[in-house]
User: What shape does this take?
Amino acid sequence: MLVEKLIKEHCLSKEEYIELLDNYTADTMEKLRVEADRLKRQYYGDKVFTRGLIEFTNYCKNNCYYCGIRLDNKNASRYRLTEEEILLSCKTGYDLGFRTFVLQGGEDPYFTDDRMVEIIKEIKSLYPDCALTLSIGERSHDTYKRFKEAGADRYLLRHETANEEHYNKLHPENLSLKSRMECLYDLKSLGFQVGAGFMVGSPYQTNETLAEDLVFLKELDPDMVGIGPFLPSHDTIFADCEKGSVEKTLLLLSIIRIILPKALIPATTALGTADPKGREKGLLAGANVVMPNLSPVTVRKKYSLYDDKICTGEEAAECQGCLTRRVASVGFQLVSERGDVYRD
Ligand code: SF4
Assistant: This one.
């Protein structure tokens, strides 16, 4: 009955989400998956959009407890790409057909607002037909405004958990859920296409905190939602924690597609790491984006948020070929488009 209600109303109460997550069965999952697939095709047909991910710095001033590149991890081998290397990655991607670039990095003080503005302007002037996404963490409203004015189109900032107590168990004291939420609403008010998201199965997560995530997502109404199973990094205090469940990630992907039918939802690398067919399963469960890596192969392994990350040894062209085949194997088509969010 809750499944039917979710399909009809595209939303449930917190208590109803908890009940759904507590009691789901294979049959529930399949019903939700079929509806998620129907909704995705209604807005995006059989298209899967591709984003060229450029992990341009693994320096970070923060200490998120789950993250392999957090400040206090002295074992991390640090790197920064030069502006030339970033632009070369864009060129490689453009020639392969990418029309969205994602600049992702830790919160690296070296990349000041001025430096970022210069890079954004350069990329947008060289590739005006491409969308530029930033994923560089929390900055002030004024900084986000400068990034937008320089030409950035989208911003990814996972909220990680919408439950404050849970947030505080995953992050040190200087980081707060309040500040993260403010950033997300700032980005939205500035006209960015905004992405939120969380890990499935992170330490201390419960069905109650997940239900709060779903309520929050409906309220924020982001254009993009990234979720993937929690995968431990051996260099963190959560090294011995269990991995997040692939099955539950797929269930949540379908639920999120139903809550936000037009959202752009990646089949994440974490899902592909947790299960060799994870990304294909993600596409079948409602995802419609893949994010292959355009960073130089020499630095790929160093952007190590979690252990055993896949696709760290292949050149961009190989990744693109592999993903084209994987996407086609489940009946979808990898397209060379900006892939903006569907608007009526
Ligand atoms: S999750 Fe992001 S902000 Fe936190 S330590 Fe890792 S790179 Fe830095």
Summary: The chain has one domain: 14-335.
